[in-house]
Amino acid sequence: MPREDVALVTVKGFLDVDTATELHHHLANQMHHGRQHLLLDLSEVPFMDSSGINIILNAYKETRQVGGSIGLIDPAPAVQRILDLTGVSLTVPSFKTVQDALDDTDDALSRP
């Protein structure tokens, strides 16, 4: 946990129909424990299907409802391409490093 209200979740392997439910439960658990801001490290995810996209979009919706945010850390090129093609990258920001994402979260919290 980079901060009390932030959860950093490192995802490894395929993010697809077989693994999406597990990720969803993990993210829900983090929010249940007061983490309003979710950072998903996708640097070790070589493939993501529509199930992964749905998890990210649902997490975006749920974090926004509690005044939080979600950010993606260093998506692998194939995953970034999927995010761009589906328009998810227009809604959910990607960052090169965890620190970049934390800085953006801090900036957002300081805005009126």
Quaternary structure state of the chains depicted? single chain
Main sheet specs: 4 strands, parallel
Count of alpha and pi helical runs: 5
Q: Remind me, CATH topology?
A: Transcription Regulator spoIIAA
Number of strands: 4
| CATH top-level class | Alpha Beta
Organism: Streptomyces cynarae
Family: Belongs to the anti-sigma-factor antagonist family.
Pfam families: STAS
InterPro entries: Anti-sigma_ant, STAS_dom, STAS_dom_sf
How would you portray this structure in words?
This protein has 112 residues and is α/β, with parallel strands linked by helices. It has a single domain (6-110), classed as 2-Layer Sandwich (Transcription Regulator spoIIAA). It is 50% helix and 20% strand. It has five helices and four strands. A four-stranded parallel beta sheet has the order 1-2-3-4. Helix 1 (20-32) runs parallel beside helix 2 (50-65). The chain is globular and about 30 Å long. The mean pLDDT is 91.
